[in-house]
Write a structure and sequence with these properties.
There is one protein chain. The model has no long low-confidence stretch (mean pLDDT 97). The strands form 4 sheets. A 7-stranded mixed β-sheet has the order 6-5-4-1-2-3-14, with helices on both faces. The chain has a 3-stranded antiparallel β-sheet with strand order 7-8-9. The protein is built from 17 helices and 14 strands. The chain is α/β, with parallel strands linked by helices and 397 residues long. Helix 1 crosses helix 6 and helix 6 crosses helix 7. The two termini are 33 Å apart. A hairpin with a 3-residue loop joins strand 10 and strand 11. It folds into 2 domains: 236 residues, Crotonobetainyl-coa:carnitine coa-transferase, domain 1 (Rossmann fold); 89 residues.
Length: 397
């Protein structure tokens, strides 16, 4: 299969999640992504979790399929090498390293006018921000968790890093298309906080207080505006159950044998449970009825019964359970990958199918392992040049 971005080269000067995820996404689409790190690696090179060998499982996961160069980013000669990798390649750089004049759009555009420069920031004014601080500033921890909880609860998924990285990859593709059509380069800035604020606005969390004068409250595991709740089986398994439509709800009532009770409840309350608003409004008393059926049945019985209906449900699982489940082990999204320092494991491809096939991942590079090859093949340096730069500690091979 011809990969969508085959033949495109992107230089990535980055660390942590968002920018490396951008590079990973572009790499899985076929681009050659050259990750440039300072000698010894950036601050994420030993980030937990670590394998027994000391290799960062986190770092290898976000850098699969890339090439790695380690260069002294503080020395003028090292900076010039990185600039040349960018402007003598396809003129595309993605970075979350702020305040580096030598890596700025203006500096690179002075050498190559059609350069595409994608800068990831914490906040739009250039001040610092990471996923966890941005999340705290945008309201989500104060509506996450049990309804009776008083303090903030952070979620563990770095959602804004992930969204920002994917926005950045989209920006690269869009900028390349525009350049192909018009010859114009691009100066792109994406702030983590802007991504979070835009998402909160697009999904109504910020619009609600502006328009209605109200704001979202904690709901625990319920779903705002719909009927959804978690239940526990007789043998202690937890399930998430969701009914988005009248049919979903009708099937849940039928399978749980609560038809008479639900009808009596609707009549006493003057409610219409065909309406999603009423299902949400009276969710607690409905859950009390359904919980009896769940508590009387085993997880296997619940799974079998609900599988025969339209009800949306899933059993809660740990990461370890998911890793052993056939949704991973028998899923073509995953393929066996050998990674130095980790051994063999099932690694995900890009979760997008092109022409009936997943775009499989390749192993992450050894830190700095491509430095010499990149400088000789891309920039025309000689082996003597590489030896001199290595001895001067301008590069590390």
């Amino acid at each position: 299969m011809t990969l969508p971005l085959a033949g495109l080269t992107v230089v990535e000067v980055s660390s942590f999640v968002a920018a490396p995820l951008c590079g990973l996404t572009l790499s899985q689409l076929g681009a050659e992504v050259i990750r440039v790190d300072p000698i010894g690696g950036a601050s994420d090179v030993r980030r937990w979790p670590l394998a027994a060998s000391g290799t960062s499982i986190y770092w290898t996961g976000l850098n699969k399929g890339k090439r790695s160069a380690t260069i002294d980013l503080l020395s003028p000669e090292g900076q010039e090498l990185v600039q040349r990798l960018i402007v003598e390649g396809d003129g595309i750089v993605v970075t979350n390293a702020a305040g580096l004049f030598w890596l700025s759009f203006e500096q690179l555009a002075a050498v190559r006018a059609d350069v595409i420069h994608v800068q990831l920031l914490g906040r739009h004014d250039g001040s610092t921000g990471v996923d966890y601080t941005v999340n705290a500033a945008t309201g989500f921890p104060l509506i996450t968790g049990p309804a009776n909880h008083a303090g903030p609860i952070n979620h563990v998924l770095p959602a804004w890093d992930v969204c920002c990285g994917l926005y950045a990859a989209l920006a690269v593709v869009a900028a390349v298309r525009r350049r192909d059509q018009s010859g114009v380069g691009a100066k792109v800035r994406i702030a983590l906080e802007d991504v979070a604020l835009a998402t909160a606005g697009n999904l109504g969390w910020l619009t609600e207080p502006q328009v209605n004068g109200t704001e979202r409250q904690r709901l625990g595991n319920a779903i705002y505006g719909q009927y959804g709740q978690d239940f526990t089986s007789r043998d202690g398994a937890a399930f998430m159950v969701v009914t988005l439509t009248k049919r979903h709800f009708r099937d849940l009532v039928e399978v749980s044998g609560t038809g008479a009770a639900v009808s009596a409840l609707a009549e006493s309350l003057g409610a219409d449970f065909n309406d999603e608003g009423d299902r949400y409004r009276y969710r607690d008393v409905l859950s009390g009825l359904f919980a009896i059926w769940f508590a009387d049945h085993t997880a296997e019985e619940i799974t079998e019964a609900l599988s025969a209906t339209s009800v949306l449900f899933e059993r809660y699982r740990t990461f370890a359970q998911v890793a052993e489940d056939e949704r991973v082990t028998a899923n073509p999204l995953f393929s066996s990958l050998h990674q130095d320092g980790l051994g063999d494991y099932l690694a995900p491809a890009m979760p997008t199918v092109f022409d009936d096939g997943y775009l499989a991942s390749e192993a992450a590079p050894r830190l700095g392992g491509d430095t010499a090859n990149l400088l000789t093949a891309r920039l025309g340096l000689s082996t003597a040049d590489v030896a001199r730069l290595t001895n001067a500690k301008t590069i590390a091979c």
